[in-house]
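Bug report (template v2)

What were you trying to do?
Predict the complex of my protein with S-adenosylmethionine.

What happened?
Run completed; filing so the output is reviewed.

Input:
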Amino acid sequence: MATHPAPVAGVLRTAAAALARAGIESARAEARLICAHVLGVDRSRLMSADGIDDAAVAEVERITAARAEEKVPLQYLLGRAPSGRLDLAVGPGVFIPRPETELLVQWVLDRLPEPGGAGRPVIVDLCAGSGAIALEIAHARPDADVHAVELHDAALEWLHRNAEERAAAGDTPIEIHHGDATDPGLLPGLRGRVTAVVSNPPYIPVTDDLPADVLGHEPATALFGGTDGLVVVVPLVDLAASLVAPGGFLAVEHDDTTGADVAAVVKRQGRFGTVEQHTDLAGRPRFVTATTRDDVDTGARGGDDDRDDDEVDTTVQKGNTR
Ligand SMILES: C[S@@+](CC[C@H](N)C(=O)[O-])C[C@H]1O[C@@H](n2cnc3c(N)ncnc32)[C@H](O)[C@@H]1O
């Protein structure tokens, strides 16, 4: 016998209570997102929905239980994550885009040459994951040639999926490379031609002190950068140095404990002149930027081995960079 649809408010209350009992901070907001996802309506229209049938209630309960009991990230359960001006497909195997990366992207966008100038800007996103950086730049700058490099197969699948979605939505297609950002010979055809190298690499110094939804579900290959957090960053900076064109620049995100180390790595590499550290919206050190030195040819690598570390000249910028 067919049953009447249950009122949305009651289902929402039950889901929110289960999430709150499990210690989920924004329980009510997450419950709204889950119910809206299952009903296929916008969050703002949730309470005007007619009701929620048995199958949909069961689906809300399934998602709520996975979130509450197994601490599966909400974005994996909903299959989408907001990322800057985009909404990307995500799921197990790919890093969930974080808001702090939007600052890095904005810094790059603010410094790209104006559209309509000589030649198309060339951008390389090393460690691309879902495509959060590469696709955001391609969206904002249809005149740019954007390349995205990803090593791991599972992440690469999400990258292809998002790149196809964005191209279908009208953005300039990006070029995807299955490759290792620590390989000094990567992208030989782009050597010395790149306007901006951008990266949010795996950078957390190895630890088990992370929230359960991160540690238990996001890929370790996306999170950890060895014991010092620099295992990927150091060779990646060398690769970036060989790719950037004269006048080009580098922007790389890092752990909030390694800002000075990353700035020193970039400075020591020798290809870059102005090296700056930037903080995120919470005031924590979050990314380092650098522009090429006028006096060093493209391809110069590690040329400052005799430079004293004390000479590292970095500018710490307080507050966000917008
Ligand atoms: C922190 S996630 C960043 C993803 C995306 N750029 C973002 O900001 O959301 C790091 C990504 O680097 C990839 N990765 C790890 N080691 C790599 C390597 N050596 N070369 C290329 N990609 C790598 C991981 O699979 C993961 O997708």
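What did the reviewer find?
The CA atoms of residues 151 and 180 lie 5 Å apart. The pocket of S-adenosylmethionine is lined by residues 95, 97, 101, 127-130, 132-133, 149-152, 155, 180-182, 200-202, 221-222, 232 (CB under 6 Å).
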